[in-house]
């Protein structure tokens, strides 16, 4: 695909530069007619930068991480925290388990140049629990409102037209799968992590 050929997420450039280059690639299909994995949330991250006037890392910190006390979440891993990084594993060509090289560079104490809206954050279970509880609690946690109730509901509600399904029985909210029967909202990460939020049963 054109995405794969251009290696958009692997270039040493800014989100603004990536989005400008991405805008030259034709759409694969008319929006709202099908689903495909893509860079839409990363483009949304650029829109956040334009509207807020801040870099994405600065906006996330002031609007989300600081109010939720997510002190271990960032686009980079400071040296003093590197010994806390979990080891990732994969399979070699013979099917044997081996240590996987770090998905993100860990040799720089500064944010990378490319800050993506849909990838690249490093976090902890405790921090991400706070984020999930905020969504479960309709955008608010411990007296800090991060999203309006309407926005939090939109994040976890199927946004597909009735005729579109990504996976049978599932729709899609904002960068996450929505189980059409249970309303459970979930998504997986690059390190084989997965979160789920079930508003019906008040569970994360």
Q: Could you walk me through the main structural features you see in this protein, from its secondary elements to its overall organization?
A:
The strands form three sheets. The protein has a four-stranded antiparallel beta sheet, with helices on one face. A two-stranded antiparallel ribbon has the order 1-2. The model has no long low-confidence stretch (mean pLDDT 91). The radius of gyration is 18 Å and the shape is globular. The protein starts with a helix and ends in a 7-residue tail after the last strand. It has helices at 2-6, 15-22, 40-52, 56-68, 125-136, 149-155; strands at 89-91, 97-99, 140-141, 144-145, 170-172, 177-179, 185-188, 194-197. With 204 residues, the protein is of the alpha+beta class.
How is this structure best summarized?
By secondary structure, the protein is of the alpha+beta class. It has helices at 2-6, 15-22, 40-52, 56-68, 125-136, 149-155; strands at 89-91, 97-99, 140-141, 144-145, 170-172, 177-179, 185-188, 194-197.
What series of H and E elements makes up the topology? HHHHEEHEEHEEEE
Measured by DSSP, the beta-strand proportion falls in 5-15%
The total of helices stands at: 6
Topology, number of strands: 8
The average pLDDT value, as a whole number, equals 91
* Radius of gyration from the alpha-carbon trace, in angstroms: 18 Å
Largest sheet: 4 strands, antiparallel
Note the gap between the termini.
Answer: 36 Å
Helical amount: 25-40%
The low-confidence runs, each spanning 5 or more residues with pLDDT under 50, are none
3D shape = globular
- Biggest sheet, spatial arrangement of strands: 5-6-7-8
Secondary structure class reads alpha+beta
């Amino acid at each position: 695909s054109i995405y794969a050929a251009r290696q958009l997420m692997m270039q040493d450039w800014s989100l603004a530069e990536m989005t400008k280059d991405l805008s030259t690639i034709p759409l694969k299909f008319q929006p709202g007619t099908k689903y495909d994995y893509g860079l839409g949330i990363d483009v949304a991250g650029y829109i956040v930068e334009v509207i807020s006037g801040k870099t994405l890392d600065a906006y996330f910190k002031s609007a989300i991480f600081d109010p939720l006390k997510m002190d271990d979440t960032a686009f980079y891993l400071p040296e003093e925290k590197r010994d806390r990084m979990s080891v990732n594993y994969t399979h070699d060509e013979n099917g044997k388990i081996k240590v996987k090289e770090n998905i993100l560079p860990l040799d720089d104490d500064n944010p990378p140049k490319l800050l993506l809206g849909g990838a690249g954050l490093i976090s902890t279970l405790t921090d991400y629990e706070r984020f999930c509880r905020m969504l479960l609690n309709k955008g608010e946690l411990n007296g800090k409102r991060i999203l309006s109730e309407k926005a939090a509901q939109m994040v976890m509600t199927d946004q597909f037209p009735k005729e579109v399904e990504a996976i049978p029985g599932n729709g899609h909210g904002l960068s996450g799968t929505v189980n059409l029967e249970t309303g459970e909202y979930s998504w997986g990460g690059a390190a084989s992590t997965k979160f789920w939020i079930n508003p019906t049963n008040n569970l994360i």
